[in-house]
């Protein structure tokens, strides 16, 4: 490997670390918000399960690595520009305590950097079709599924003892949050595995696109380390500021979000864990009463969603132009 490729791979691992640091906390926000697990226990559990989830398949990695931008017309400067855009945007949002979607940031970054090199023809419809499906999937299934599931739970357990419900659903929520952590790794974790594999192809290490096991292990481990560093700002926004959650609501939101993410992972559809759990929390909150959701906080979060595509795309475009001018 030459120096340029090593630098690019280091940038990818940096972005993967930030993925574990700023995005993975979304997967544990609800279990911390309901006080079933302490932040430290949840973070340590997430570090392990995110790692295992990232090693559970390669369908999403292939979609990101082969079908978002045309590998035959880009070079390593595209990967570098995209990673720098992700890092800048994610860290800036983290300072505000806003949960960002590394999924949206990644595809936007690749698109912006790719456009800087080869124009609109670099974008591949096969992959972007899955991105659009993922956006619709997370928005409507997250909110609607969580709303319905929370209503069902309220109907069947309305007359149960509050203390007994909290005890039983507390146990169930440990399982649902674990599922959520695993599913985050199986989808979000795979995305940077795909980019890492693409960089190896562009750098000449491999002649065809392939996802080696050592790449899976390396990226999964880096994401796990990033998760273990923490991300309490994001946990506070998602699990405490957005809506006060009861234990059964946390269980409902996590179960719906994790199930949907896992289905998407097996189909190779990149979805946003942030988007999915955000909409699921809104769904369970509205199922109780609409006023229980703190809509000003939701407005901030939605604004971050909307800005991610143009901001990450623009930063990546500019960085790529500058890199190519310098090099």
Structure, described:
The chain is mostly helical and 327 residues long. Helices cover 80% and strands 0% of the residues. It has 13 helices and no strands. The longest helix has 41 residues, at 162-202. It is elongated and about 65 Å long. 57% of the residues are buried.
What is the ordering of alpha helices and beta strands?
Answer: HHHHHHHHHHHHH
- Annotation field: number of helices: 13
* Total count of strands: 0
Q: Helicity level, as a percent range?
A: over 70%
Whole-angstrom Rg: 19 Å
Quick synopsis:
It contains 13 helices and no strands. It has 327 residues and is mainly alpha-helical.
Write the layout of secondary structure elements.
Elements: H1 3-23, H2 25-33, H3 39-54, H4 59-67, H5 76-95, H6 102-118, H7 125-157, H8 162-202, H9 213-229, H10 232-241, H11 247-267, H12 273-288, H13 295-326
Throw out a few tags for this protein.
mainly alpha; 327 residues
């Amino acid at each position: 490997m030459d120096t340029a490729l090593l630098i690019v791979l280091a940038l990818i691992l940096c972005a993967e670390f930030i993925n574990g640091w700023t995005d993975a906390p979304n997967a544990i926000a609800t279990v911390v918000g309901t006080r079933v697990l302490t932040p430290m226990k949840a973070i340590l559990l997430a570090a392990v399960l995110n790692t295992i989830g990232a090693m559970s398949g390669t369908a999403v990695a292939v979609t990101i690595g082969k079908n978002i931008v045309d590998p035959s017309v880009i070079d390593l400067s595209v990967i570098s520009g995209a990673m720098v855009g992700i890092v800048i945007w994610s860290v800036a949002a983290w300072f505000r305590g806003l949960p960002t979607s590394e999924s949206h940031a990644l595809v936007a970054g690749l698109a912006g950097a790719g456009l800087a090199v080869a124009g609109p023809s670099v974008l591949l419809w096969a992959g972007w079709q899955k991105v659009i499906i993922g956006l619709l999937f997370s928005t409507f299934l997250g909110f609607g599924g969580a709303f319905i599931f929370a209503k069902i739970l309220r109907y069947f357990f309305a007359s149960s003892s509050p203390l007994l419900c909290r005890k039983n659903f507390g146990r169930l929520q440990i399982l649902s949050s674990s599922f959520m952590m695993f599913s985050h790794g199986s989808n979000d974790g795979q995305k940077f595995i795909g980019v890492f594999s693409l960089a190896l192809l562009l750098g000449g290490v491999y002649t065809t696109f392939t996802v080696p096991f050592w790449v899976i292990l390396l990226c999964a481990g880096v994401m796990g380390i990033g998760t273990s560093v923490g991300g309490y700002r994001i946990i506070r926004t998602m699990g405490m500021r957005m809506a006060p959650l009861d234990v059964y609501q946390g269980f409902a939101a996590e179960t719906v979000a994790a199930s949907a993410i896992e289905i998407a992972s097996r189909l190779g559809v990149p979805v946003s864990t942030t988007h999915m759990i955000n909409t699921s929390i809104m769904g369970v909150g509205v199922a109780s009463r609409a006023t229980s959701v703190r809509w000003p906080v939701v407005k901030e979060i939605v604004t971050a969603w909307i800005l991610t595509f143009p901001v990450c795309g623009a930063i990546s475009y500019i960085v790529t132009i500058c890199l190519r001018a310098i090099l």
